[in-house]
Design goal:
The complex is a heterotetramer, with two copies of chain A (about 150 residues) and two copies of chain B (about 400 residues). Chain A is α+β, with helices and mostly antiparallel strands. Helix content of chain A is about 50%, strand content about 15%. Chain A is built from six helices and three strands, in the order H-H-E-E-E-H-H-H-H. The chains are: A alpha+beta (about 150), B alpha/beta (about 400). The structure holds pyridoxal-5'-phosphate (2 copies). One pyridoxal-5'-phosphate sits at the interface of chains B and C.
């Protein structure tokens, strides 16, 4: 295990030029996340249409781990249904905490498994999962809002 | 010159390996390591003298009371306080500030009174005043930073005025290293009879602080940042001011006569120490003071200055490094960033070399906002650090740049 | 049965001689002695892992954060709290009570609200409420004692009413040994939606306290009274109540985002832990919990009961001794007086035999007023006390009577 | 040094039947004292005439040391001038803290030297000196009152 495994080429490329950086006007899903252990923050915006993530962007300053993780996450989740996204977040959390292995031969997980090195740096797990936790919070808020709206219409 | 090699032997933690490397500890501004003398003072107390203080008539209780009160005397002497009655033991510097903010502030501040702080305060000298301001309607005013990261005092005549009821400021900044001209500010405030509190958390460990010479009204520091244990700190206050303050917390040890509906409080300093105190903590602090005295404050100060200067010189040689804070006359720490590399990543890579530095906002977010960075890397020094430690740091930073070569 | 001889070996202080005699330590209700396991846990932390918590990205900081947060988990498990987020580390029980009295009381009490306490509270559970009552205009009400030194609950229906906004009471009295029916009182108060705080300082060391089963809203205890170090205590609070409380102190470690004019606080429990905590203290407490668990709470409780019963039986045989508190079902301590001899004199003479007992008001002056004595002698027991210890106490008391023969 | 040296016959006799216990109505000198370390308290009353202590009494519950000390003190100081009393208090404080020896062949100090044993019990010194400190405070208050009264008459 060396430091180069943590800062793999894929991670550094995403850090250098992160994908999907920016804001979405009046997004259906929005959440702010905060990493208590280092003070970094992130904002996640998503446009939902037909129960699918039509577009997703993020804003925030952070370390290579948190930035590349957010960049890859937004790449991957675009186009997925809300339920698929929820499952994916769960799966990611299990893998990044070492509870499950990253799949060896999955195209979908290929890039993300560049974050594998983080497992050996427990204090950095929070960095890798910041974007994911934040999105999960945004989805919860979004679904609660839907439920409230439904109730009001009843 | 300090005999760092010999000093390091007293700190057993340096026998440890971090990921196969020697530990290079450069985070003393957060907390210092502890010499065996301090660790043993605590163990010996528990092994030989442990009992509750102040109320027992048996041998152990007498011994532990004496040791606890002797620790108070040694703390008093350490900052040249007139009497040990002006020394209140707290958990840490933070509690000392909260104690004064509450016991003085809630008693004496009214709506629209002004409390003067600075833009470089540690959160511990900011949040307590925000809380008190909210409760009393008093307003916070700030001395802002000039371009060099020093206090801009050009406006002091306006900032300190009839509305000002309290001034509280840091002696040495923990994020910029700035040494503030506290003596001048105290003098100026006293012209208006305004009490001044000094946050000496970063200065007391490194330089001789004389409360009588400074003429500050209150002063706080933490034991754990000066070789002492966690859980013990000191609030110094002039006796006549402490006398005028109601208690902060209530409970055992701080009272004379108690009835269900009223109570008569003990005299200072005990009035402010409710409940069983951190007895072993005070004894450990006293051992730390002894250790520091045996090295000598002047030697410590010189050593810190030399290391810092050397570190700055070496850092400046590295391309893309930005150093924060005043160029000259600064405390024994240096904060910086490498262009395009987040401090957190720097710290993780340095850790691979055994180098412990802090990455973050150092509990001074307003300073980060002023610097317009999310965080910085900070290396801070103490008696066990050598010039070689700085060299390992520099090597690690170069390696960091290599890892991030594609990005940089 | 406890193997006291073996246990005593863990407590090195018993190798000491007091005026030529073995130490017979009978003041555990004031503070307990510490086993080598606790002392070493603290030393080892300083020797191997010492760093500040929560904000560092290097190995030591990660280790110390983990050890500190693990200590929180072990404290949570010790009292069967639902989550470690409901555990706030304080200096001692006293600070826990002050925290709630301030953060809850100043926020939610209005003039003429009622706070219900009992006549047997330790000053630590009385003075904080006196201070808050003064600030808010709320009134203190009391459950008084019956002839046996137990709470007179006949009037409870009137004492707990719509005006009552808070109930705070001691689980086991430190001066009478009374065990209060806290579960019934909590149930009753909850019928009116009134939060209840339990001062479990004397119960948590001796008996299994299950905060979920009690359904108390807050509970406090001190580490130093359960084999742990000084300077560390625990406040338990139900998460939803802690959430509703503003911070008590402000500073580092307890905030998220900070600007000069506002700040956003961290989630519980960290919101209530301003400044560098007593890290080594928490780790020492966790070692104490481990030690207690290794002996077993049931065994400890049984042992305390047996010693106390034996002590009472033997004391009753001595002419002119008055024993205070309930006859049956009491905590592991006994308070008494010898006719015409002041407790202070008793304690001085016992000290000549190596026997350490407390003489005084035990921070419960209202109980002394109720007993109509200035002070009492108190012998209190813990895991390292044997039946022989009680015998030495009795011998010392007989000698005391001899010394005072002319007076008696 | 044994415990019997602390609790000598003289001490115990004074404890058993302390002298000068009681109140004096509207006394010239009055003070309350409190021993923080054990919670005992004492009240001292004195009648002053022609700058002399004409009568002196005390009230209070306390240990054998504090009670006998108060009893002996009141015995001894009765009839002395205020200045003599002040000197005597100073002398006593020096002796009870071990700073000076108790005189061997002084009639005046004969009884008081029964308190000699206290020196070896530092924690009990406060008990022995409680009455003396309290009287000293009473005299200070009395003299301040005199000064104030004089000033008012000027
Ligand atoms: C019942 C009770 N409550 C509270 C306290 C206060 O404990 P601490 O001094 O550790 O805060 C004590 C200790 O004497 C006690 O016995
Ligand atoms: C300048 C300054 N003030 C106050 C504090 C707070 O110290 P503590 O956390 O020990 O209360 C610190 C520690 O980081 C500091 O550097």
């Amino acid at each position: 295990m060396s430091i180069e495994d943590l800062y793999s080429e894929i991670v550094l490329e995403h850090y250098k030029e992160p994908h999907n950086v920016g804001e979405i006007q009046s997004p259906e899903i929005f959440a702010k996340g905060f990493n208590e252990s280092c003070g970094d923050d992130i904002k996640i915006f998503a446009r939902v249409k037909d129960n699918k993530i039509e577009d997703i962007k993020f804003l925030g300053k952070g370390c290579a781990i948190s930035q590349s993780s957010a960049s890859m996450m937004t790449d991957l989740l675009k186009g997925k249904s809300i339920n698929e996204v929820k499952e994916f977040i769960k799966a990611f959390n299990k893998k990044i905490t070492g509870e499950e292995n990253f799949p060896e031969d999955s195209d979908e997980w290929f890039e993300l498994s560049a974050l594998k090195g983080v497992i050996k740096f427990p204090i950095r797990v929070k960095c890798a999962s910041l974007a994911w936790h934040t999105l999960a919070q945004g989805i919860r808020d979004y679904e609660n809002k839907l439920i409230r709206r439904n109730n009001e219409q009843l | 010159m300090l005999d760092v090699k010999k000093i390091k032997e007293d700190f057993l933690i340096f026998q440890r390996k971090i990921k196969g490397n020697n530990l290079i500890y450069l985070d003393s501004a957060a907390t210092t390591q502890k010499p065996i003398q301090v660790i043993e003072a605590i163990s010996n107390y528990y092994r030989n003298n442990n009992a509750n203080v102040h109320r027992g008539a048996y041998t152990l209780s007498e011994e532990s009371t004496m040791m606890y009160e002797n620790a108070r005397q040694s703390a008093a002497k350490f900052i040249n306080a007139k009497s040990s009655e002006s020394i209140v033991f707290t958990r840490n510097a933070t509690e000392g500030i909260n104690l004064v903010a509450n016991a003085w502030g809630l008693e004496y501040f009214k709506a629209d009174d002004e409390i003067l702080l600075t833009q470089m305060e540690h959160h511990s000298n900011l949040i307590p005043w925000q809380l008190v301001a909210k409760k009393t309607g008093a307003k916070l005013k700030f001395i802002y930073l000039d371009r060099n990261g020093e206090l801009d005092l050009s406006n002091l005549e306006n900032l300190i005025n009839e509305k000002t009821k309290f001034v509280s400021l840091v002696h040495i900044s923990n994020s910029l290293g700035t040494i503030n001209p506290v003596r001048d500010i105290i003098k100026h405030a006293h012209n208006y009879n305004i009490p001044v509190m000094i946050d000496a958390t970063q200065s007391v460990p490194h330089t001789f602080v004389d409360v009588q010479e400074l003429d500050c009204d209150f002063l706080v520091f933490s034991g754990h940042k000066m070789l002492g244990p966690t859980g013990i700190g000191v609030l110094y206050g002039k006796e006549e001011l402490l006398d005028k303050m109601p208690p902060f917390m209530g409970g055992g040890e701080m009272i004379n006569e108690v009835h269900l509906d009223w109570a008569d409080y003990r005299s200072i300093p005990w009035k402010f120490e409710a409940g069983t105190p951190n007895i072993a903590g005070a004894i450990g602090l006293s051992a730390a003071i002894e250790y520091i005295n045996s090295i000598g404050k002047e030697n410590i100060e010189q050593h810190g200055k030399r290391l810092t200067q050397f570190a700055i010189e070496e850092l400046e040689k590295i391309d893309g490094i930005e150093i924060y804070g005043p160029k000259f006359n600064r405390g024994p720490l240096v904060a910086f960033n490498i262009k395009n590399i987040h401090p957190h990543d720097v710290s993780t890579i340095l850790d691979e070399y055994g180098v412990a530095v802090r990455a973050g906002h150092h509990c001074t977010q307003p300073v980060m906002q002023w610097l317009n960075v999310p965080a910085t890397v900070r290396a801070s020094f103490y008696v066990y650090n050598s010039f070689e430690d700085v060299e390992v740091l520099i090597k690690g930073l170069k390696k960091t740049k290599e890892v991030f070569a594609g990005v940089y």
